[in-house]
Amino acid sequence: MNAKRLAAEKAVEYVKNGMVVGLGTGSTATWAINALGEKVKAGLEIQAIASSVASENLAKQYGISLIDFSELNIIHVTIDGADEVDPKGNLIKGGGGALLREKIIAYNSKEFIVIVDDTKLVNTLGKFPLPVEVVPFAVDLTLKQLRNLGSTAIIRKKDGKEFVTDNANLIADCSFGEIQDPDKLNTSLLLIPGVAECGLFLHSKVSQVIIGYTDGTVDFL
Ligand SMILES: O=C(CO)[C@H](O)[C@H](O)COP(=O)(O)O
Question: Catalytic residues per the record (predicted)?
C-alpha cells in the first residue's frame, strides 16, 4: 500500500463543495491533487490556489478551477506534505524548494492539514537539512550569517546548476543538527537580511497531521 497516497486520500475527504483549497507541492501533495482532480471530474465544486508552478499545472490538467489572489477572501483548507514531523507537530518543509509559497498559503489557511508517511516522523527535527530560501543578491554574506547560527549552509544544486525557486530565489540547505527549539531558530533565521523564508513550520499553525502506513492504516497527530 502506498502510505503517502493513503494519507493524501484521507485528507481529501475533508474537502467539501464550495471550499477554497490550498494545494501543496511534492509527491504526497501530488497524490492529494490527483484525488481532488478525480473528485472534481465527478462533480465536486472547489476553487484552488497552488503553492508552486508544478502544482498549478497539475491542477489545470484536472480542470480544477484556480482562483486569483486578488479575488481570494478565505482559504478553507490547505493540504501539503512535509519532510519531517516532530511529536508536537512542528515541521521541516522545503525538500521540493516550494517552502516560501507553501508557508504563505498554509499560514493564511483556516485549516492546514499535513500528509506524510511514517518515515517522516522524528523525535527531534534536524536530520533533514533545513531548507532556507535566500535572495541571490550577496548570497555569500547570507550564507555566512547562516553558518554563524551554527549550520553548514550549502546552496542547493540540481543537474549541476543552482536550483532556482519559483520566486527566482535560491535554497540554502542548512544542517543544524538536532533543532531543540524550532520557534527560536525560526525567529533567528527570519532576522537575517537576505533570508526570504525558512522551512520551519511551527505546530501552532498545523491543524492536523495525517500519517499513512504501508499496512494500509492511518493515524492522526
Ligand atoms: O515541502 C515540500 C516541498 O517544498 C514537500 O511537501 C516536502 O518536501 C515533502 O515532499 P514529498 O511529499 O515528496 O515527500
Answer: 102
Is residue 102 part of the annotated active site? The answer reads yes
Question: What are the structural domains, with CATH classification, of the chain?
Answer: 3-121+203-220 (3.40.50.1360), 130-198 (3.30.70.260)
Q: How crowded is the C-beta side of 4, counted as CA atoms within 13 Å?
A: 16
Identify the pLDDT of residue 156.
Answer: 98
ipTM computed for the complex: 0.99
Q: Is the CB of 89 under 6 A from ligand 1?
A: no
- pTM, full prediction: 0.97
Alpha carbon of 150 to ligand 1 centroid (Å): 24
> How many CA atoms lie within 13 Å of 127's alpha carbon, on the beta-carbon side?
10
Q: Does any ligand 1 atom lie closer than 6 A to the CB of residue 8?
A: no
pLDDT in tens, 116-172: 999 999 999 999 999 999 999 999 999 999 999 999 999 999 999 999 999 999 999
CB 199 within 8 A of CB 25: no
Strand 65-66 to strand 47-50: parallel, antiparallel, or no bridges (unpaired)?
Answer: parallel
CA 156 – ligand 1 centroid, Å: 15
Sorted by sequence, the CB contacts under 8 Å of residue 165 that are 6+ apart come out as 97, 98, 100, 133, 171
The 3-state DSSP class for residue 26 equals coil
Residue in 102, 111, 133, 197 annotated catalytic: 102
Measured from the CA of 117, which atom of ligand 1 is nearest?
A: 14
Record the cell numbers describing residue 164, joined without a space: 532556482
